[in-house]
Amino acid sequence: MSISNEVPEHPCVSPVSNQVFERRLIEKYIAENGADPISGQPLSEEQLIDIKVSHPIRPKAPSATSIPAILKSLQDEWDAVMLHSFTLRQQLQTTRQELSHALYQHDAACRVIARLTKEVTAAREALATLKPQAGLIAPQATPASQPAAVGAGGEAMEISEQIGMTPEIIQKLQDKATVLTTERKKRGKTVPEELVRAEDLGKYRQVASHAGLHSASIPGILSLDLCPTDTNKVLTGGADKNVVVFDRREEQIVATLKGHTKKVSSVIYHPAQSVVFSASPDSTIRVWSVSGGNCVQVIRAHEASVTGLSLHATGDYLLSSSEDQYWAFSDIQTGRVLTKVTDETAGCAQTEPPNLIFLTSSLHSPFKSGLSLNSPPLHYYQLTIICPIILLASF
Questions:
Q1: Arithmetic mean of pLDDT, 233-244
Q2: Could you list the residue range(s) of the whole structural domain that residue 33 is in?
Q3: Which sections of the protein are WD repeats (predicted)?
């Protein structure tokens, strides 16, 4: 522009000559001469008018207009672009590493949260399991006189020898059968008034539900029985290998009986004594003392899983069946096997009034059941309507 003939960085206009000047240069000229450099008329700095423009692009110097200079300029710009690209790649790699680290931390945090959630759930289940055990009787060890139970590895165990049915035992069974037959004939003449009518069964409703009797980590109640003399006492056998006596009125566990090495498939409550019986696929039948909380007898009558268990009306003998295709008749006082008979179809065993008849069913029979019948009625319908309490056990 005027004075320098170059594009001004801070242009301004003189109102005297209407020329554009570099403000820095025109201010020096006015300070020395006090007049406009073009018209020579008086001019002051206050009269200058600034021009607002975007940053102008300076023309290249004449030395940069040659081909070598242009190539040098292009090379410099290329180098600058490559350096900037290298810087961006470094920043990208750093960002990727930071993102990967953050993702690993997130995954580890999720794993810790999942583990803690699982532990909290297990602790809550354990707490729920412990709540009804206020009156728990700690189980005692099996008496040293009893043989060791089958190990988890399935070692061979000693099977009790048969001592045979002595005349005294046979006479005892016959005397009990005579008494039961007499009572049965009396009941058969009239229908008991306390029987529940069929239409009343539809009115039955759930009145209580008790959780935490067995382990929450190995859920499942596989067998159930009531104490005949006190229906508030409930006997259960679970998949956790434990036998539990529960008082539903007090809502607490009376005893937890431990000793089986596999799940408990059958349980029976003795009608006159504080004794319960259990059978398991570990091939053993155990006699438990509820008051003592310990095992008093281990009956080893079978070589395979015990599938059925029934108590004789005398209260002194047990009938059992097994997958070894045998059924056995044992003395609960001594734990000895009285007699043992092979039956390829035996899957479930039952004594039938007058208790001189033993019933067995095939593993494929639709009548296979874990219920214990020591007295009439003979039919399922009658069994249902005489029960004052109906209990359901499930997983």
A1: 89
A2: 11-50
A3: 257-298
